[in-house]
Amino acid sequence: MKTKISLVLIAFLLSGVAFPVSAQTPELPVYIVQPGDTLYTIADQFDLTIDEILEVNSLANPDWLSEGDMIRIPGFEGISGEFIPYTISLADTFSNLLEKASIDKTYFIKINHITSPNELIAGKDIILPIRDAQQNPSENIALENFSSPFLQLSIENTSIWENDFSQITAKVINKDHIEIQDLSINPFPFEQGKTNYIYFEAVPDQTLQFLIDNKRIPVFQYESGKYLAMYGINALSDTGLRELLLQSLSDDRNQVLYSQNILTGDSAFTTDPVIVVEPDYIDPEKTMPEEEQLFAIANNVSDRDLWDGSFSYPVDEPCIRSRYGSIRSYNHGPYDAFHTGVDFGICAANLNIYASGAGRVVHAGEWFVRGNSVVIDHGWGIFTGYWHMQTIDVQVGDIVEEGQIIGIIGTTGRSTGSHLHWELMLNDVQVDPLQWIETSIP
Ligand SMILES: [Zn+2]
User: Fold this and answer.
1) Are residue 292 and residue 431 in the same domain, yes or no?
2) For the chain, which residues score pLDDT lower than 70?
3) What is the pLDDT of residues 176-217, one digit of tens each?
4) Which of 226, 305, 373, 433 is such that its CA lies 20 to 30 A from the CA of 344?
């Protein structure tokens, strides 16, 4: 093999010109050299050795590839056309990429070293094999049975948000021609520790839910035909891929109306110094009962009959002593905990704690770790919690207004100084509560 390559190189050096591939070589696809490419990166991309590439190419200088050079790629005999570097857009699914490529699934998988369609996620760089135009059947794609509502858009080239990672907006049409319109996700991609808002429009009065990571996320109709779902991801949740499915529960088929794989970004939370507490405060026998009570409370999704969509700070002159999400170790144990809320110091001339939104008091009493504590149910699966209070001024069942005093700041429970720990739970997930002061939802 080596001899042959050397001969080819010598032949080239003598002739001084790159020559086209000889007629007896089988038809092979061509890769167009991109800025920054080297023979090494191209070989790596296609799981080949440099020698294997040199064997089927006659290169003027293998160390000096120019943008636009055509490199024949061995291993795909019988396939003609071009291999194009491509960044997967939000509109893409496995099936629409196959349609775009008009290539056999097996080749597509081989070229991109794919082990599962779930690896095809927005923002990922792949190789899109494009067959020669005359072989391309994509003009006549049958639309009856497409697996993703985005396929049609992609074919129509109406995708307007390729590589836009702030928000997506698209007209989505599902297979049974129930229109889902103007779907937007914010933030996009999803973020650790955040509430991720999913808005869309559809036929009024549908019973819908999202399934994300196999968790049921309720969908609320806030105006006729306008829907909102909120997906909370805690600070320690996995980054990477999440599968998002929108299901219709209007009949017993649980029909999937829309599906897409969405990335979750790393919020890079800071790591706190080791926190040393009395051993009782990290003894599961002592800490778990209230943990279970809290999560049982926060698992309820009640109607939004009180709260107006905005939250306010629970203290006057809010000064933050510790933010949400910092990763924590207690008593030199593993860093497997995170700060589940925001700590406010005392910066105002009073110790008042206010309900940060209207709601119903669902817990008011002493907990071991959280001390004197209050939990308010705001509806739609949203709860706020207030820990380490000196005194509590409300009772379970009370209806409170936004801004109503519910107690005063203290240092009860697992606390080393007077402060208010304030947290927000969404569908039993603790998320960054400050996001809810900046965001007003319909
Ligand atoms: Zn705290």
Assistant:
1) yes
2) 1-26, 89-91, 116-118, 122-123, 131-179, 252
3) 556 677 788 888 788 999 999 999 888 898 899 999 988 999
4) 305
Residue 203 Cα to ligand 1 midpoint, Å, equals 43
CA of 334 to the centre of ligand 1 (A): 19
- Whose tokens are 């042959």? That residue is 4
Å from CA of 271 to ligand 1 middle: 14
pLDDT given for residue 170 in this prediction: 45
Say how many Å lie between the CA of residue 421 and the centre of ligand 1: 4
Q: How far is the CA of 342 from the centre of ligand 1 (A)?
A: 6
Q: The domain containing residue 79 runs over which residues?
A: 2-139
Domain membership of residue 158 (yes or no) is no
Helix (H) or strand (E) holding 364: strand 359-367
CATH number of the domain encompassing residue 198: 2.60.40.10
State how far the Cα of 96 lies from the Cα of 354, in Å rounded to an integer: 52
- How many Å lie between the centroid of ligand 1 and the Cα of residue 321? 9
Q: How far is 40 from 18, CA to CA, in rounded Å? A: 20
Residue 149: partners with Cβ closer than 8 Å, 6 or more residues away = 172, 173, 174, 175, 180, 257, 258
Ligand 1: distance of its center to the CA of 394 in Å?
21
Distance from the alpha carbon of residue 340 to the mean position of ligand 1, in angstroms: 7
CA-wise closest residue to 390 among 375, 376, 368, 371? 371
**How far is Cα 167 from Cα 84, in angstroms, rounded to an integer?**
26
CA of 330 to the centre of ligand 1 (A): 13
Question: How many domains is the chain partitioned into structurally?
Answer: 3
User: Which residue type does 266 have?
Assistant: D
Q: How far is the CA of 362 from the centre of ligand 1 (A)?
A: 20
Residue-wise pLDDT for 352-391, tens only, equals 999 999 999 999 999 999 999 999 999 999 999 999 999 9
Nearest residue to 355 (alpha-carbon basis) of 406, 285, 300: 406
Residue 119 and residue 32 share a domain: yes
